[in-house]
Amino acid sequence: MSAHPIDLDRETIDAPLFAPEAFRLSDEQAALTAKVRAFGKRVVAPRAAIHDREATFPIENFRDMHGEGLLRLCIPKDEGGLGADFQTYCLAAAELGRYCGATALSWNMHVCSTLWSGPLADELEMTPADRAAHRARRSVHYQRIVNDGAVYAQPFSEGGAAAAGAIAFGTEARPVAGGFIVNGKKIFVSLSGAADYYGVLCTERAEGEAASRRNTLYLAVPANAEGVSVVGDWDPLGMRGTVSRTLLFKDVFVPDEAMLMPHGVYFQAASRWPHMFITLSPTYMGLAQAAYDFTVGYLRGELPGMPPVKRRMFPTKQIAVAEMRIMLEQTKALWFQAITEARANPSREQVLRAYAAQHTVMENANAIAVKAIRTCGGQAMLKSLPLERIYRDSRCGALMLPWTAEICVDRIGREALYEPGEKDD
């Protein structure tokens, strides 16, 4: 637990990424994003460089999040959480991304276990019996987080087309008395070796059955369960602090009570709540803002620990900052609209806009970081300053499933030109 909880009356915090008045945020949203911003600046930012350099997971950030209530952000208030909805989570995560991309991206994996099983699932169809059972099961998970600070990961990728939603997951859960036997492999598992539970997406498959996406299960597998192992090294270009190693499951028994969603509900969510797949983008929205903020501070001679040398008087620098600001504002406007439209059964135009927002954020975050390095010059490449880390972290966004930049472009083009069910003769 954080030894010194955030006191917003005494904190000197940065300007909000999304000004509450301009973007019509509620008072609760404004207060929560300010809290996350203060936490990011005071607690997370000072630790970012060492975890990036050593490729170690910042578990102390998550212990401090527990003390600040941030692990329970999207848990309903009647379960002891803060009750944040999808838009509020995205705004908060973007603020955290300004200070450490790896922490924000890992936080996303944890929060989604509560966001998907909470406010998102509440908008989906279930029988009364299924809903009652779901609420009883999720309450167990929520209390682990609220009371004990349990951290959940969300293994997704397997190296094939399953993470993009094209085929069934290769990790399988065989039904047995009282639960399931899980076998399979997940790659790029953020929080691997640090999480207490892994929210595993897998295919329920009985003997002799064909694998089907409709039978996707969402199971909370204890990290210390027999048959769970973490293997491989982790030495990537960026997002080094996520420590996203490979996770293996060998005949792991998981009880029925571990289901984070009832049978068939994940498939329903993936079909009817597509915005659930843009929750990685807030981190990169924050990185875009961070690259711009660094550039302005550097050119004004206001970076902490740097000589107060001003470089703002050169027309080339002014033009570059103007171009960065234009790109940043375009990105913010489109992304904010997309997260505001998140809901069950969005319109075709809203889904296309979500694809466009995901692509824009992931590409523009890195484009702004590239221009920031060129504008600030050679010193910006030094590891003693955060910009080179922002650049490396931002380069990873366009590659991240389930909506990579290429997938977004493909779907926008196809769905803009073809009505549902329409084919060429």
Description of the structure:
It is a single chain. The chain has eleven helices and seven strands. 45% of the residues are buried. Helix 1 crosses helix 3 (86-97) and helix 8 (315-340) runs antiparallel to helix 9. Strands 1, 2, 3, 4, 5, 6 and 7 form a seven-stranded mixed β-sheet that branches. It is of the alpha/beta class and 425 residues long. The N and C termini lie far apart (63 Å). A hairpin with a 2-residue loop joins strand 2 and strand 3 (179-189). It is globular, with a radius of gyration of 21 Å.
Mean pLDDT: 95
The number of helices is 11
Rounded to the nearest angstrom, the radius of gyration is: 21 Å
Q: Which residue ranges are poorly predicted, with pLDDT under 50 across at least 5 consecutive positions?
A: none
Gross geometry: globular
Tell me the series of helices and strands, N- to C-terminal: HHHHHEEEEEEEHHHHHH
Measure the end-to-end span. 63 Å
**Would you tell me the structural class of the helices and strands?**
alpha/beta
Number of strands: 7
Helix content: 40-55%
Largest sheet: 7 strands, mixed
- In quaternary terms, these chains amount to single chain
Estimated share of beta-strand residues:
5-15%
